[in-house]
Structures are given as structure tokens and as C-alpha cells.
Amino acid sequence: MTPVRIETDPEHGGRWTSLRAAGREWLWHRPEPRRPGVRPGDAFADAGGLEECVPTVRGTPDHGDAWSRPWRRGADGTETADCPDFRISRLIRTDGDAAVADYRLTAEPGYRFLWAAHALLDLAPGARIGIRDGAQVRRYPDGGARWTPCSWPAGLDRLGPDDGTALGAIVDTRQVEVHDGPSVLRMTVEAGGQPVSVALWRNLGGFPAHTPYRSVGVEPMLGRVFGLAAAGDADAALVPPGGEVRWRLTVTAHTTPVQK
């Protein structure tokens, strides 16, 4: 394992702008002139990095309500965003060879939400997504709200060259590994009593229709759907009587020996 270094931009939505580990940068970026000036209610401005998507990913507000608002950083390093229906805070720290992000959302008891660490990764065409075989998958073949069930890997584990496709999937797992050459990135999400999963966005030059580009999302989640409006009883996180939900995202990375 090697140290993980994370940089964030609280002023512009709390976006993670750098995730360096195993001797490389993992986050993908693209030029997006709209990103610095976004306001609540704006359509999503995809600049890459890792966006905090809450209380939904798809739907309204587009990619959630926190990515378009300034966050404030406290003296202890805690970063916080105030949204109309909730407050979200996170503290990112290094713990040995891991980076640990501890989250806290406060809202009225009974409030339902989704959260995704919307990480767009800079991966080569031969990269592989490592998830336990047989995990249940919700596959969104057309990018919409309808999904079909299948089991991992279902052809989703290996990234090829651009082929003009774009699809999403949500996998019933709390841990994912990304293998890119000799480098391995591992992300684990933990949230007692809440549904957790990992979302995938495989855009191999199929989105958007008018000016497609390649982007690959590997996104630890609270919840099991992309859109809060489509969430069933067990598909979203639920604020308990105490008025808060806490969860943790742990990130580690290492380099595997080169086979000769």
C-alpha cells in the first residue's frame, strides 16, 4: 500500500480535484467553462474529478443539490455544505496507508436521500473493475430510469476502447477494486443500517449524443438507484429519529509486481 493524497475545492461544490495514490493521479478531468460559475438549479457541468451527489444522482436537482453550492472548511478540516433540506459534512484524513472520508448528513427524521461519490477515473482501455462474482446488478442499458437484473460481471468488468456505447449499472457491494495496469485502487463504503452499493458509468464515447466523449465512473453509494424519485422502500438512505446519518468512504491503492 502507498499513501493516498486528496485535494478538494470547497468553494466550487466540494469537488475532489485530485486523488493521487500508487504513484499516479486517478481522477479524470475535462475542460468545462461552466463549472466555476454554477449556481443551485443549474444543469450538471461535467468537469470530472469526484463530485458529491446528494440527495440524488439523476433527476432533480441534476446530480444533486450539494455540487453546485460552496462548502466551508472549518479549523479542524471538516468541510460542510448547507442545502435547503439537509446539511452534509465530511472530514477527509490520512490513516496510515489509507484515506478515510467520514460523512455526516443531518435532516428531519424520515428524510430519504441518495449519495454517490461520483468519481470519474482516468483509466486505460484495458482496465478492469474488480467486484465479487455473483453480486446482484441493476443494469441501465439506455441511460434512463428502467433497469434489468443480472449478476456480476455480466460483461461489465472490463473496459475496452471507445465503441459508442454508454450505460449505467448499480452493483450490490460495498467494495470495489479498479485495476489499471500494475496499479490497483480500492474503495469501500460503510454505513450501518443503510443500503450501500457501487454505481458504474461506462461511457465509451456514447454520451452526450451531439459531442460524445469517454468517461468512466466508479461511484460508492448510499442507496441502490440513480434517481431518488424511483427509489423503493429499501433503495434509499433514511434519516433515523436522531436526525443524522453517518458513513465512511475508505480509499487505498497499491502497485502489483510486473509479471515477467
Number of DSSP-assigned strands: 20
* End-to-end CA span: 21 Å
Give the H and E element order.
EEEEEEEEEEEEEEEEEEEE
Number of helices: 0
The largest beta-sheet arranges its strands as 5-6-7-8-20-16-15-11
Shape: globular
* Alpha-beta content class: mainly beta
Strand content: over 45%
Helix content: under 10%
What does the average pLDDT come to? 95
Catalogue the unreliable spans: none
Rounded Rg? 17 Å
Largest sheet: 8 strands, antiparallel
Q: Can you put this structure into words, describing what you see?
A:
By secondary structure, this protein is mostly beta strands. The chain has strands at residues 5-9, 15-21, 24-25, 50-53, 72-73, 79-83, 86-95, 98-106, 112-113, 115-121, 128-130, 136-140, 148-151, 165-171, 175-180, 183-190, 196-207, 213-222, 237-238, 244-255. The strands form four sheets. Strands 5-6-7-8-20-16-15-11 form an eight-stranded antiparallel β-sheet, with no helix packed on it. The mean pLDDT is 95.
What's the arrangement of secondary structure elements?
Layout: E1 5-9, E2 15-21, E3 24-25, E4 50-53, E5 72-73, E6 79-83, E7 86-95, E8 98-106, E9 112-113, E10 115-121, E11 128-130, E12 136-140, E13 148-151, E14 165-171, E15 175-180, E16 183-190, E17 196-207, E18 213-222, E19 237-238, E20 244-255
Antiparallel strand pairs: 1-2, 2-3, 4-10, 5-6, 6-7, 7-8, 8-20, 9-19, 10-18, 11-15, 12-13, 12-14, 14-17, 15-16, 16-20, 17-18
